Amino acid sequence: MTETTTRTSDRTYRGPAGSGVPRLAALPGVRRDVVLPQQVLETERYDTDDRRLASAGITLTLHRMPEGPPQWHLHLPDGGPAEDLRVPLAPDAGVAPAVPGELAELIRGAARDRAVRPAGRIRRVRTEARLYGEGDRPIAVVVHDEVTLATLGSATEVEAWTEVELRDTAADDSLLAELQKRFTESGLRNAGTAPDEELDRLLRPAPKARPVKAGKRGSAGAVLLEYIAAQADRLAAEELRVRRGGPDSVHQMRVASRRMRSALQAYRKLLDRKRTDPIVDGLRELGRALAPARDAEVLHERISDGLAALPPELRLGPAQALMTRYFARAEAEANAAVLTELDSERHAKLRSAIDALVERPPLTKLAARPARKEMPKLVARTAKRLEDAVKIAHDPTAEESERDVAVHSARKAGKRLRYATEVATPPVGKDAKQFAKALKGFQSALGEHQDTVVARETLRELGTLAHPAGENGFSFGLLYGRDAARADEIERDLPALWAQAWKRRNRRWLR
Fold first, then answer.
1. Cα torsion through 227, 232, 238, 239, rounded to 10
2. Share above pLDDT 90 across residues of the chain, in percent, rounded to a whole number
3. In the structure, how many helices (H) and strands (E) does the chain have?
4. pLDDT per residue over 157-193, tens digit each?
């Protein structure tokens, strides 16, 4: 936390530049005062020329303080002050230092293709007077700053003022009253904001462009755009967490990308597909890049729990150690691939395209119609896709591998239907909410089935790796058999789960 954010605002006073230090002679109860050598403190705020970091709630600052080496300070929107990152300035950084690599990586998703440069500076020329009473007891510290605040870049604004702060006070009421009187006589008044807050004001990003032709409130286009904008914000926030290695961040970023892609696909008639199809393709590629990291995370937990649940006599050989080695490599490679994708030009273009979609949505004439009437029709089209996929999954003549593919296809169609229904819930109300609830059991069963399919592939590989290493793969084979049996059980239950979810009363709102 910077020193400007820890001050006591009711003991900080501000006046015109050059007001000078208030008189400190002959103060009641003060036996002597010591004036320390003058100091210069500088804080530089870094951002892009269009303030993308500020828009994302990110603050990147370079502090140059007399009491220690210069230090970078990064505050991210999802963390408190204790989680802020601090990196010393490299000794050979020069007068215009570049952002350190470890910090540049974290802000790259927000900055994208824009350079991050000094955007503003606070400069303080400080004089500090320490007041002592009887027995050389410290009473108070009076900090006098001549403050200059300037924006940097193509447009420059400069503000200057005098600021006096009373710190570490053990003064009695009479001394406080006298100090306040002298501050007032010097033209100082209570300061409402800190210099950092003043710089925030000058560097405040321009308001986000309001969607053009988003439609009237309650129109299908307005409802869709509100949902897409929320997912765009979620995607940006989770990307930042992924870059920091936050728990469950890959999964949440993947969910946000799926939600947006499903909405764009289900409601494609409301938007110009020349603009949205490339975004759909980009989100699909993003999902593919995130999938291995998420799958490795889920599989690691599933297989670890499966081994732990086995009786000791069935955990043969160093199965846990083999699994740990396997997933350590798989997760490291998958996470590295995720960061490579997020740093790619393709991802930067996708994020820019999403921003443009939200700011300048290419809505069609159909989007102007009332959401409550139009959206159920479009959800019905997505529901038909799920119905067709389920028919194939229920085909008793299909081979096991064909059923696995069909169930997976039904799962993907079910996710798209769930998210499409989510978009329509605000205007439609309880009927849409009830429909989503009815689908939950069926969708959960499909998800678990897919987990067994992926887990069996990994368990087979783990068993294969155990043999040449002279280890016993029995435990992995046992888990494989259990997952195969669970998959068969789910397939037997699916018709009943589907019948329950697909009751006509649950679908009455679809037209």
1. 160
2. 50
3. 13, 10
4. 899 999 999 887 788 888 888 988 898 888 888 887 7
Per-residue pLDDT of 240-290, as tens digits, reads 889 888 888 999 999 999 999 999 999 999 999 999 999 999 999 999 999
The span from the CA of 468 to the CA of 489, in Å, is 33
With bands split at pLDDT 50, 70 and 90, how would you rate the model's confidence at 215? low
Residue 160 pairs with which residues in a beta bridge? 148
Outline where 245-396 has alpha helix (H): 249-266, 273-309, 319-342, 345-359, 371-393
Distance CA 297, CA 304 (A): 11
| Residue 498: how many other CB atoms lie within 10 Å | 21
The two tokens of residue 445 are 């069963």
Span 136-162, pLDDT tens digits: 999 999 999 999 999 887 768 899 999
Q: What's the pLDDT tens digit per position in 20-29?
A: 788 888 999 8
Q: Read off the DSSP letter of residue 363.
A: B
CB of 154 closer than 8 Å to CB of 161: no
Sequence-distant (≥ 6) Cβ neighbours of residue 267 within 8 angstroms: 220, 224, 375, 378, 420, 423
Residue 355, burial from CB neighbour count under 10 angstroms (0-12, 13-18, 19+): middle
Task: Report the candidate in 221, 304, 298 with the shortest Cα–Cα distance to residue 254.
Answer: 298
Amino acid letter, residue 58? I
d(CA 22, CA 138): 19
Other beta carbons within 10 Å of 41: 18
235: which residues sit within 8 A by CB, 6+ positions away? 253, 256, 257, 260, 351, 354
Enumerate residues 6+ apart whose C-beta is below 8 A from 414.
Answer: 386, 439, 442, 443, 446
77-97 pLDDT, tens digit each? 876 677 789 999 988 777 778
Q: Is 230 exposed, middle or buried (0-12, 13-18, 19+ CB in 10 A)?
A: middle
Q: What whole-number distance in Å separates Cα of residue 126 and Cα of residue 144?
A: 6
Q: Which long-range contacts (CB under 8 A, 24 or more apart) does 428-437 make?
A: 428/371, 428/372, 428/375, 428/376, 428/509, 431/508, 431/509, 432/376, 432/379, 432/509, 434/506, 435/506, 435/507, 435/509, 435/510
Per the structure block, which two tokens stand in for 145? 């700053």
37 vs 506: CA distance, rounded Å: 78
Q: Give the count of beta carbons closer than 10 Å to the beta carbon of residue 441.
A: 15
Structure tokens at 56: 């994302």
| Residue 439 neighbours by CB under 8 Å, 6+ apart | 414, 417, 418, 421, 501
Which residue from 171, 174, 126 is spatially nearest to 4, judged by alpha carbons? 126
Query: What DSSP assignment string belongs to 189-209?
Result: EE--S-HHHHHHHHTPPPPPP
Confidence of residue 1 (pLDDT cuts 50, 70, 90): very low
C-alpha 151/C-alpha 137 separation (Å) is: 42
